Amino acid sequence: MKVLYFAWLRSKVGIGEEEVAPPPEVSDLGALVAWLKTRSPGHAAALADMAVVRAAVNQDYAGLDHPVKAGDEVAFFPPVTGG
Amino acid sequence: MKVLYFAWLRSKVGIGEEEVAPPPEVSDLGALVAWLKTRSPGHAAALADMAVVRAAVNQDYAGLDHPVKAGDEVAFFPPVTGG
Amino acid sequence: MIRVQREDFDPGAELARLTAGNTAIGGICLFVGLVRDFMGEAAALGDEVRGMTLEHYPGMTERQLEAIEAEARRRWELEGTLVIHRHGRLEPGDRIVLVAAASAHREAAFQACHFLIDWLKTKAPFWKVEHTAAGDHWVEARASDETLAGRWEG
Amino acid sequence: MIRVQREDFDPGAELARLTAGNTAIGGICLFVGLVRDFMGEAAALGDEVRGMTLEHYPGMTERQLEAIEAEARRRWELEGTLVIHRHGRLEPGDRIVLVAAASAHREAAFQACHFLIDWLKTKAPFWKVEHTAAGDHWVEARASDETLAGRWEG
Q1: Is C79's pLDDT higher than 90?
Q2: Residue B82 located in a structural domain
Q3: Whole-angstrom Cα distance, residue D53 to residue B78?
Q4: CATH number (domain holding residue A59)
Q5: What is the rounded distance in angstroms from the CA atom of residue C140 to the CA atom of residue C150?
Q6: Residue C3 gets which letter from DSSP?
Q7: Which of C41, C81, C112 lies closest to D26, judged by CA?
Q8: Neighbouring subunits of D (3+ Cβ pairs under 8 A)
Q9: Residue B29 Cα, gap to closest chain C Cα (Å)
């Protein structure tokens, strides 16, 4: 599973992209967030308040109950500010 | 007093512009319309139905109760269709 | 700024001129009206239009366009406005009108631009003759234009 | 059509391309967003912005912009649509974004163009860092943008 971080989440995690292999019980976004937060203090800080974080699975917006599986591209980022 | 006609009103009157000197009792647009209609069958046809005619006095839209006097520029035309 | 002219205009050059050197502008909204090749609401229902001629009331046109522009600048905080309207003979595909509004904020730019064209449509003294295979005829004002302009009243 | 690019674009040329040869178009509405030289709501209150850098999510950006464009074309009868968004480093006065919609009818062109920028603002994965005298900071999303986008829901 590929995980991407954008904007200030990338700064906090310290990397923009990583390949991860969470255990099988990590089957939705919420569980993935909880598991990622255990990987480093940077991950924990970036994902501390999910109210200010948006997520996408395979390039579509997804809520925390969205399923995730091996091979997915998952991304975390702040609310968008383009235009 | 200068009177101008535009679009199909000009076609009906047969001229685009004329200098007129109505009698002193013609003191508002409504009276001017009544007086102009006596000038020719073309005038009468153009000004027959004032519901489909707009008027301006000195280049501002004006209602039939708007005063008119010597030296004014008065115009009659259909609802506008620019843009 | 307002302009009434027979010649064509270049929307890109006008846009560049309107924003040049003003870094307080966050957004610019522009509308360009073109001569369609059919009359009425839908191509299938309408007669083919071979061209049109726009008549106007010189003097009053400029006066009314300036009043409409001033009203837009009174209602919204704008960094620039532009209205260009052509007259004379035009062919299908030709540009007729351009309205534009620039502002620090996109919503003001959109609202002002929309207001400019809606008011122009019902207040600026222009009249169209359409040239069709069946002959020439004066275009009739549409009630829907009055309704759209009415949104901005009050 | 959508484009995500580092290079600048020419609004006049894009407008000409969008309308070329299509005489069913009665109106085209275009919005261009520019880099302002101040942050926040008013020049007097904001810090001076020396430039900004736009980051985006390659792949998802194109996917979301295409979805927004498709939604506009589903909602209104349009003859053409265009969305261009830049990324990378930009200076005050630089163009950031262009959205445009062409239609037989001016109201459809306006509504679709307005919809395109409102939805883009809340759905396209771009993030701005502003460079100011006080340092760099990530621009925060504005609740007002959510409100404006919400007009088009349902």
Answers
A1: yes
A2: no
A3: 54
A4: 3.10.20.30
A5: 18
A6: E
A7: C41
A8: A, C
A9: 18
